[in-house]
Amino acid sequence: MNDIPKFSSAVHEVADAAAANELFQRNGWTDGLPVVPPTEEAVARFLAAVRLDAATVIGVEPVRRRSLTAEKVAIAAVMAGCMPEYLSVVVAVVKAMCQPEYALHGSTASTGGSAPFIVVNGPVRLAIGMNATHNVLANASRANATIGRSIRLILLNVLGGIPGQLDRSTLGHPGKFTFCVAEDEEDSPWLPLSVERGVPAGVSAVTALQVESPQQIMNEWTHDPREICDTYAAAMRSNMLLYSIWEGNYAVVIAKQHREIFAAAGWSKQNIREYVFDKARVKRGEWRTVGKAAVAGRKDEDKVYCALRSPDDLLVVAAGGPAGGFGAILPPWYGKKSLAVTMPVDT
């Protein structure tokens, strides 16, 4: 190709795709899974899809000041198995993660083992075939899987988030391979998450949040929206006792059966946020009940801790299959030290 741009990345000559994969595995350039070899032609094709020069800086990691260029982002997207039309979403996620309030360096290096949770809103979801329903938090679609995986490969290869080196996760969780969903806007009674967070309706956007492993909940025995919320709040209180008492952005993923109960009762996302804000609280002394007596007794045991700083800290996401009274909570990595960021997608 005569129109291949000039790249700064090293070029490696290999016999075929299998040899390329072995090269990447030996050098620790993958997440342990096979990759699509990022040839110059493929990277050029991806950059053309978003009309970006290779040297364009997409974002700068705020602590170590490492630049993430369009070239490096495109290489990761090719490796992850993306299609070129997914790259605009990956670029938006990188921009969001480079905002200071996201705390990209700390969340990448922490022993806590968090992962970027990505929610995609707007027309781009349908244009690239993202999944918002069945099995939404797992192996749902090529777009869901590879967009999230692109971010992990960027963290590995551009920011040095290698397990045992910069990434000091004690356990981690499977979301560190990929954790990306679309919101089910078409089958939801509510405003999309991005619209609630200030993006105009009809504009594609991503929301990124560092989360610990999700906890699935079930309540199929009531049509009272308060009782449904009580179940979500109980899971949040459990996280406060078992993991972290820090307040900040929690996400709740609400599948269709629960959404229908809320809709029948006339409950909005704001109603859910306000109810859960009042319920997701624990007293310091409750730590004694989970083996943390040494911590519980250090201060006033009657002090009340809230999961959220305000109702607006709760991200309510409409997603999941149509059957079953299920939902999930996604706890934050470090509360108010790492917050969700929403960013429009340039399409």
Overall number of strands = 12
Apparent shape? globular
Q: Any low-confidence stretches, pLDDT <50, length ≥5?
A: none
Work out the oligomeric state of the chains in this entry. Answer: single chain
Number of individual domains: 2
Q: How do the strands line up in the largest sheet?
A: 4-3-5-12
The proportion of strand residues reads 15-25%
N/C terminus separation: 25 Å
SS-derived structural category:
alpha+beta
- The total count of helices amounts to 12
Element string (H = helix, E = strand): HHEEHHHEHHEHEEHEHHEHEEEE
* CA radius of gyration: 21 Å
Give a quick account of the main beta sheet: strands, pairing sense, barrel closure: 4 strands, mixed
Helix content: 25-40%
Any descriptors?
347 residues; 12 helices; globular; 33% helix; 12 strands; 2 domains; 4-stranded mixed beta sheet; alpha+beta
Task: Walk me through the structure.
The chain is an alpha+beta fold and 347 residues long. The protein folds into two domains: 1-211, no CATH class; 213-331. It contains twelve helices and twelve strands. A hairpin with a 6-residue loop joins strand 1 and strand 2 (67-69).
Q: Which helices and strands occur, and which strands form pairs?
A:
Blueprint: H1 17-26, H2 40-50, E1 57-60, E2 67-69, H3 70-80, H4 87-97, H5 104-109, E3 115-121, H6 124-127, H7 142-157, E4 180-182, H8 193-196, E5 205-211, E6 215-218, H9 225-242, E7 250-254, H10 256-264, H11 269-279, E8 281-283, H12 293-296, E9 304-306, E10 314-318, E11 326-330, E12 341-344
Parallel strand pairs: 3-4, 7-10
Antiparallel strand pairs: 1-2, 3-5, 5-12, 6-11, 7-11, 8-9
